[in-house]
Specification:
The chain is an all-alpha fold. The chain has one domain. It is built from 2 helices and no strands. The protein has helices at residues 8-27, 34-56. It starts with 7 loop residues before the first helix and ends in a 10-residue tail after the last helix.
Length: 66
């Protein structure tokens, strides 16, 4: 995943997604890890959604969810 400049929050989200991607790669070498990898993909997708919210906000803030 390419690095993009942005707010501190965006950098944190990018770093977290990269760590999950590394975990997915490592776990792909372990038998019977499919369930864990599926959960990690779900978390990665949630982080991506949060990152997208940050990218859409001009000031980098995200409105609180109700």
């Amino acid at each position: 995943m390419p690095y993009e400049p942005g707010s501190t929050e965006c950098r944190v989200l990018i770093d977290c997604k990269a760590q999950i991607e590394a975990m997915l790669l490592a776990l792909s070498r372990i038998d019977n890890s499919r369930h864990i990898r599926d959960q990690l993909v779900s978390v990665h997708n949630q982080l991506e959604g949060l990152h997208e919210l940050h990218r859409r906000q001009p000031d980098g803030t995200v409105a609180a969810a109700s």
